Amino acid sequence: MDVVVLGGGVIGTTTAYYLAQRGAKVTVIDRQPGPAMETSFANAGQVSPGYSTPWAAPGIPLKALKWLFQAHAPLRIRPDGSLYQWQWLAAMLANCTQARYVQNKARMMRLAEYSRDCLRELRSGVDLRYEHRTGGTLQLFRSAAQLDAAERDVAVLAELGVAHQLLTRTQLTQHEPALARSAVPLAGGLRLPNDETGDCFLFTQQLAAAARELGVRFRFNARIDRLETRGEQLTGVIVDGERIATTQCVLALGSYSRPMLQALGLDLPVYPVKGYSLTVPLTRPEAAPVSTVLDETFKVALTRFDQRLRVGGMAELAGFDLALRESRRATLEKVVKDLFPEAGDLSAATFWTGLRPLTPDGTPVVGPTRYQGLWLNTGHGTLGWTMACGSGRVLADQVCGLAPDIDTEGLALARYARPARSASRPQLGMARRRQA
Ligand SMILES: Cc1cc2nc3c(=O)[nH]c(=O)nc-3n(C[C@H](O)[C@H](O)[C@H](O)COP(=O)(O)OP(=O)(O)OC[C@H]3O[C@@H](n4cnc5c(N)ncnc54)[C@H](O)[C@@H]3O)c2cc1C
User: Fold this and answer.
1) Cα gap 348→45, rounded to integer Å
2) Can you give the pLDDT at residue 435?
3) Which atom of ligand 1 is nearest to the CA of 354?
4) Ligand 1 pocket list (CB less than 6 A)
5) Cα angle for residues 378, 121, 395 (degrees, 5° grid)
6) What is the C-alpha separation between 194 and 117, in angstroms, rounded?
7) Using 50, 70 and 90 to split pLDDT, how confident is the model at 392?
8) Residue-range domain boundaries for the chain
9) DSSP class of residue 235?
10) CA of 86 to the centre of ligand 1 (A)
11) What pTM, to 2 d.p., does this model score?
């Protein structure tokens, strides 16, 4: 079977690898000169099924209001001039009920836990070197109130069978010794020992090389203009004005997936949520974290690579804006100075921004569409690195007519379908035709 994969980020590349492993003849197309050059380039490095939680959660609307008035707030909204931005926000807020939160989190955890297991299996068969560590992750609380609030998360983790440890202030340094040098008082933490860390860019580059060995062809520096259909069948892709005939295609264009599908009347509710990262060269490795530390106050994650510290976080709803804002760099630097003040050379750090393809319910869109042969693997938002291997494998199984290892309930675009004669579901109001 011939399959064209659109997008060579971490999602497209994992999909291509698993498709080739199942015997498909795969071509990956991307506008960049190599794999993982856009959102998968410099993310925060966490492979964290334990934190696989939708943004849309009870209590978020109130928190978001407070953040609007804080200097180092994790969230910013800058009107992008579109009605869609507000419709997407409204759909996100509609998912903040307890019932939807539980449903969305369960879907995300199902995929994320499977994905971590797929990553481990992949690593045992392919020599992948991406500065990974298996030391778990640590959510850090600066205040007693945050520690108390974590009790609710602990109850959810226990219910879902996720291994975890609630740590007192004095226990923090048993796992992250460099926190003894912290410049601010700390209250405690929540450790998830089964989480992993690693550089998503290095992983994707290396997996692309392994995919090439399985016969995958990568076509870089190629702009995908549009998809071509006849009736309800996919028939081709137009790339740099040239038609490529295909009847099987996986769309993995990250934040750019929505505009590509709009021309076909498919309403994919993905919004580009901007984040920032700093990559800091280490000068004193013993003063740096050994794994990931997530500062709950600023929602900033600090991940240890071999000789670098990756510091990532923040969310801006500002459309397809890739400007590097110095105020955001100041927030990332503040967190480093607070927690690991002696670790690295901030003046030599690299500042980066990327657009997370986020759905209003936090769950990615993995599965078929109503067009025969057009498959989606996109909308992974804050957790694309965490969910990449599982999503790629589930979709490759579906394309090849195999039964996926996990239940695919609630993963496909069909979950946004407008139910006949019902106004009870949140809709983005953009869809004119029945989805999927
Ligand atoms: C600051 C930050 C921190 C993050 N931290 C984490 C983390 O710790 N853990 C985690 O799990 N996730 C994290 N994420 C999220 C994760 O990085 C994303 O979910 C993931 O990279 C999305 O991968 P993707 O392949 O879908 O998108 P991308 O990597 O953006 O890939 C899409 C590809 O499509 C190509 N493309 C788009 N349009 C066209 C076109 N018209 N023609 C040709 N090519 C096209 C692009 O060139 C790109 O290569 C973070 C994100 C950010 C921004």
Assistant:
1) 20
2) 44
3) 53
4) 7-12, 30-32, 36-40, 43-46, 223-224, 252-254, 256, 275-277, 301, 312, 354, 356-357, 378, 380-386
5) 25
6) 10
7) very high
8) 2-416
9) E
10) 23
11) 0.94
